[in-house]
Amino acid sequence: MQDEKPFLWKNFIRLGLLAGIISLFLSLIGMVGTFDERQIIGGVITLGQILLFGPIVGLAYIAARQSSDAKPSIHLPGGFVLGLVASFPLIVLVIVGGITQPDGSLFLRQFLPNVSPELIKLLRFGQSPLVGSVILAAVTAVMGLLGIGIYLLPDRIQSPVLAGLATVFMVGLLAEIIILAWGNKGIGLAIRRVIFSGGGLSTVGAVIFFVLAAAINTVWRSRREQWQEKIGQLSPQQQQRLQWGKIALGIFFLLFLPLILRTYLTEVVNNVGLYILMGLGLNIVVGFAGLLDLGYVAFFAIGAYTMGILTSQSDLGIAGWSFWAALPFSVLAAVTAGVILGIPVLRMRGDYLAIVTMGFGEIIRILALSDWLKPLIGGAQGILMIPKPSLFGFEFVTPESIYYLILAGSLIAAFVSWRLRDARLGRQWMAMREDEDVAEATGIPLVKTKLLAFATGAAFAGLSGAIFAAKLSSVFPHSFNLLVSINVLCLIIVGGMGSLPGVVVGALVLIGLPEFLREFAEYRYLMYGALLIVMMLVRPEGLWPSEVTKRELHAEEGQLMAGSGE
Questions:
Q1: What pTM was computed for the model?
Q2: Quick one: 23 and 44 in the same domain?
Q3: d(Cα 298, Cα 304) in Å, to the nearest integer?
Q4: Phi then psi for 165, rounded to 5 degrees?
């Protein structure tokens, strides 16, 4: 124990310094200053303050977990020291950032434009440099103690508290969107005056949501084992019926979702749905078959352009078909492109496959921009006047009506993916993903299996592209750059490789949240990178991993633990 104490203190100091550097970095890139006006609880807590002090609370909690065997007499002083150490980088910024030039402007701002007087004032709490630095050190020390205090709570209290805090943060973060959708008339206006204040939650609203989330978490934790035990006692047929009942209930909820979300939020969900549709296709290629495809956007573009060429009422339209008549040909064109791509890369793996597919995607984008194909597909001007889909006289024009078209495509893609995953072909894909040589030795035809993976994934991308073209009534080549492929790949990694629910969760996190929070648009890719790093370190299997991936990772962890003798 005597040898462990110095290590624990070093760990608290190390994590405290890391927390301070993170807070300093968020300040220097402008996030703290930019979002200080964004209220989470009106007049009490801003998003800028959470970004500034949140890393300290979080890393204090992590430090306590890493030293779980230590006594509280170590934890509390450790949290205090962690908070003090975290204040050092920020105090340096307060002192250096306050130095002015002869013209009165901040000296540091000529090198770091985001170091504004407002940021320095925020860090000083509106006081002089000396007094402000003392207050800052005291606040960070309290934040360190807060992180330790949350950890020291009994589990039956800690979980509801964390659930309540997370709910208050998310509702406060989305307050402006909720107000926009519901809070401008009728009963929504009355609720808004009680629940929301200053673009965020009111104090009363924060208490209401905290209590509700904590209560739901408490009930769920107390009854979860009983419910799981009852479900375990059901026969296989009853469990299957229960599973289908859950699916039916989920579909029923999705059918009425536009009535809840209204127009703006439904449009956001439509964008998420298109990425879910593409994600389900790329999940087959990358998650099931293990083929790293960075040119997936090419199939999306081919589906969209085929729909535009066959249906457009402009000079570029060659057939004047309806959406439904052109849809099979859009999917078929994407499938054909998938097979054409698959043939030359049959013997490629890993990085080489990624580079070739990325090149294919760039070729399609450049061809769409070129003057060579301009008479056919419009070049940089794209294809306009693509008609909206219609069915039995009903035209899919509004976001609410387009939603059902995207929902139908996503459900079909999810059903096909689910059936293929459990079929012989799905098992062949997974065997090929694990080891191509062993899979071939067991009799799996690699050529046929790879081509089917590329073709199936391309079909879903083509379907998504066709709906995308009809949704916008136009197609432009700038909509199909490499970042689309990267985004789809990222949502699969974050959600969980090979997991169908993981695709949905990943799309909601990486596509939905930035769309909901347009003020984060400037920092979207920073958050992507940070989230991917955190996921790889903390939860490499993803937010909602497949059972196979979960078993594989835990088996590897068990082997490592056994090998180290622990």
A1: 0.84
A2: yes
A3: 10
A4: -65, -40
